[in-house]
Specification:
This protein has 8 helices and 10 strands. The chain has helices at residues 22-38, 64-84, 98-108, 131-137, 175-187, 208-215, 238-249, 272-279, and strands spanning 13-17, 41-48, 88-95, 113-117, 144-147, 163-167, 191-199, 227-234, 253-258, 284-288. α5 (175-187) crosses α6 (208-215) and α7 (238-249) runs parallel beside α8.
């Protein structure tokens, strides 16, 4: 059987959305660590909302074009600061609908990784908050690394990946995500733990044999000495079990699949991936799967 090509685990162009907040700055520090390891280009992107031509009376004193000009200047300064640190970096200011502009930038600049921060809150805030972050990871056709509120600030330290948890359903369609986690762990000489969370009320058993056969279409060699399967019977939500294991083991990265969804769907109750983002003690990398 022909070997398939999974998502690349090396990154040439890393997009980092920013709203000038501390949250997005924390995400940038993780992006810088990745870029330094593989000489990736950093694309710092800020999306301005479309200028409102019908201005409410209470905001009539605000000159939106002047605000955007100041933000563009800030972006140029931040791009220059990254280049002075030795990074290949560009600052990009866009105006328009958030998702349309970001998805267009991903395609235009051939982005193969997005690194973004999230407050882990729900609400109507524009960017990097709750449902907006989930919307990006469920639409972007490249891996998304989310830095949640429980992830420690690097504070000038280097992020070292020593252990990767790959949360998997053990369904054949999840094999590409598992293969990606395997390749990423191998590059960093990290330990890899496959985690399958089984609901205690479920009578359906995971088919490890079918999953492994699908996995070997991407990775033709064995799983390696550094990989093993851990199954947990969960009385709580799967997201809680994933987070609990990461906390117990002091893991450095969680890799998991995410289902595609429209931006409107993310305003429904949080899915497993979103719940993990809120409480994970380490960054979470999500990859779209069928």
């Amino acid at each position: 059987m022909a070997t398939m090509n999974p998502v690349a685990a090396t990154f040439e162009h890393i997009l980092v959305p920013t709203d000038f907040s501390e949250t997005s700055q924390r995400a940038l520090e993780y992006a810088k660590t990745i870029a330094k390891q593989s000489n990736s280009e950093l694309l710092l992107v800020h999306v301005n909302p479309p200028i409102n031509l019908v201005t409410p009376p209470e905001t009539a004193w605000i000159d939106e074009s002047e605000v955007q000009a100041r933000q563009e200047e800030q972006m140029e300064q931040r791009g220059a600061a990254l280049r002075s640190e030795g990074f290949r970096a560009r600052s990009i200011s866009l105006t328009g609908p958030l998702y349309d502009e970001l998805l267009s930038a991903i395609k235009q600049y051939k982005v193969d990784l997005i690194v973004m921060g999230t407050h882990g809150r729900k609400g109507l805030e524009r960017l990097l908050i709750g449902s907006d972050a989930e919307a990006m990871l469920r639409q972007a056709r490249c891996p998304v690394l989310s830095v949640g509120p429980a992830v420690p600030d690097l504070q000038g330290k280097t992020w070292r990946i020593r252990e990767v948890i790959c949360a998997t359903t053990l369904q054949p369609r999840a094999a590409e995500v598992a293969a990606f986690a395997h390749k990423l762990a191998a590059q960093h000489e990290a330990e890899l733990v496959f985690l399958h969370v089984k609901n205690a009320d479920s009578e359906e058993d995971a088919d490890w044999v079918a999953f492994e056969e699908a996995f070997h279409q991407y990775v033709p060699e064995d799983l390696g000495k550094r990989s093993w399967l851990r199954t947990r019977l969960a009385s709580t939500a799967p997201g809680v079990s994933i987070v609990d294991l990461a906390k117990e083991r002091g893991s450095d990265l969680i890799v998991m699949g995410a289902r595609p969804a429209s931006s409107m769907a993310t305003h429904l109750p949080l899915g497993t991936a979103a719940k993990v983002l809120v409480e994970a003690p380490c960054p979470v990398m999500t990859i779209l799967q069928p």
